[in-house]
């Protein structure tokens, strides 16, 4: 992971070193029960799945070191959230905020030159559902809307403390008193900051009607039709599935295009090397349908990583095509193989 310039944050391996060899198993198990929800919280705060994992590891390290002084004066869950909040506030580096390409500039022409890649700390990153959601389907349903890429990007517009307050109050449903305790503030200050956060979110958060439901037959058919159209590189079929103002983006590139015709032009122009790609379904990312996207290597029968592809749906059409190109980091995170090969003939 690349830290922002001037960052003094220790590397992940340094923070992990020595934290698992001396932990009492029962204490560690009590921490681990909260790992996924803490990771989801940290992800909403930081916009990075890698930084979220780092934040939870650092939380467990701090919690272990101060566990003797904990004494059960609050619930373990509230105490861990307090520590995670402080860790995230320490990690947020001044005014730098993660964004999506659509937040930084207007749409590009599909034939515009491809810009240089920006550093990874510029972008909102996807998070595997398995890192953020527990086994309870009800918890999954209630949490996934606030892990959407658009929501996480909107949160980045808030100052760090307002971000924490909004998430704790409106996503986690902490009381004003619990939130005040976590942030060492008064309840009145928490409520005032929440009102300011709501006002900002009302301006920057897009109105969204997307409701991805894995059990919805129409949505499953839409996803299947997208895969078939993309793998056959049938642009007529593909564009028929897209919303009129669909956005295609490819972090770490700032370039993005809007509209079905421009998507098709881009795919047939700059994106022509994706012809004959293979899409491997993932359990999900950000509560949305996602794929490991492999493109042809040039060697017959072999495909190499190209992107983690995340689809945004709205009103039973595809509203967003997100191709996250940092495969060196993201493919291992999602448990994907470094290449695909056709089986050898029997």
Percent range of helical residues? 40-55%
Q: What Rg, in angstroms, do the CA atoms define?
A: 21 Å
Structural class comes to alpha+beta
* Oligomer state of the chains in this structure: single chain
Tally the structural domains. 2
Count of helix runs: 17
Strand content: 5-15%
CA-CA gap between termini: 42 Å
SSE order, as H and E? HHHHHHHHHHHHHHHEEHEEEEHE
The beta-strand count equals 7
Stretches where pLDDT falls below 50 for ≥5 residues?
A: 1-21
Give the overall silhouette.
globular
Main β sheet profile: 7 strands, mixed
| Overall pLDDT confidence | 88
Pfam families: Sigma70_r2, Sigma70_r4_2
Family: Belongs to the sigma-70 factor family. ECF subfamily.
Keywords: DNA-binding, Sigma factor, Transcription, Transcription regulation
Protein name: Sigma-70 family RNA polymerase sigma factor
Fold and architecture overview:
This protein is α+β, with helices and mostly antiparallel strands and 346 residues long. The protein has two domains: 12-204, no CATH class; 217-341, Nuclear Transport Factor 2, Chain: A. 46% of the residues lie in helices and 14% in strands. The protein is built from 17 helices and seven strands. Strands 1, 2, 3, 4, 5, 6 and 7 form a seven-stranded mixed sheet that branches. Strand 5 and strand 6 form a beta hairpin. Helix 4 packs across helix 6 and helix 12 (176-183) crosses helix 13. It is globular, with a radius of gyration of 21 Å. The protein starts with 11 loop residues before the first helix and ends in a 5-residue tail after the last strand. Residues 1-21 have low confidence and may be disordered. InterPro entries: ECF_Sigma-70_Domain, NTF2-like_dom_sf, RNA_pol_sigma-70_dom, RNA_pol_sigma-G_actinobac, RNA_pol_sigma70_r2, RNA_pol_sigma70_r4_t2, RNA_pol_sigma_r2, RNA_pol_sigma_r3/r4-like. Residues 1-26 are annotated as: Disordered. Interacts transiently with the RNA polymerase catalytic core formed by RpoA, RpoB, RpoC and RpoZ (2 alpha, 1 beta, 1 beta' and 1 omega subunit) to form the RNA polymerase holoenzyme that can initiate transcription.
């Amino acid at each position: 992971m690349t830290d922002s310039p001037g960052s003094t944050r220790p590397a992940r391996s340094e923070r992990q070193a020595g934290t698992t060899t001396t932990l009492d198993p029962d204490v560690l198990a009590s921490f681990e029960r909260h790992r996924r929800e803490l990771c989801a919280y940290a992800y909403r705060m930081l916009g990075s799945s890698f930084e979220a994992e780092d934040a939870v590891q650092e939380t467990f390290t701090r919690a272990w070191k101060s566990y003797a002084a904990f004494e059960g004066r609050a619930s373990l869950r509230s105490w861990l959230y307090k520590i995670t909040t402080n860790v995230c506030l320490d990690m947020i580096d001044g005014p730098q905020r993660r964004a999506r390409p659509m937040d930084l500039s207007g749409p590009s022409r599909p034939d515009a030159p491809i810009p240089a890649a920006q550093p990874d700390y510029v972008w909102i990153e996807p998070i595997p559902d398995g890192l953020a959601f527990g086994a309870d389907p009800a918890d999954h349903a209630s949490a996934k809307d606030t892990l959407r890429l658009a929501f996480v990007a909107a949160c980045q517009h808030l100052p760090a403390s307002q971000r924490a307050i909004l998430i704790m109050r409106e996503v986690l449903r902490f009381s004003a008193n619990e939130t005040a305790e976590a942030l060492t503030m008064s309840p009145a200050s928490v409520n005032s900051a929440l009102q300011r956060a709501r006002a900002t979110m009302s301006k920057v958060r897009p109105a969204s009607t997307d409701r991805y439901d894995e059990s919805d037959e129409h949505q499953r058919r839409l996803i299947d039709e997208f895969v078939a159209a993309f793998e056959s590189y049938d642009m007529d079929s593909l564009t028929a599935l897209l919303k009129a103002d669909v956005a295609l983006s490819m972090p770490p590139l700032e370039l993005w295009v809007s509209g079905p015709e421009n998507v098709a032009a881009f795919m047939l122009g700059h994106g022509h090397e994706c012809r004959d790609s293979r899409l491997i379904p993932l359990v999900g990312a950000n509560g949305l349908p996602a794929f490991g996207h492999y493109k042809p290597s040039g060697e017959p029968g072999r495909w190499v990583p190209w992107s983690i592809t995340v689809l945004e749906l709205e009103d039973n059409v595809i509203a967003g095509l997100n191709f996250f190109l940092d495969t060196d980091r993201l493919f291992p995170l999602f448990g994907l193989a470094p290449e695909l090969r056709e089986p050898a003939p029997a």
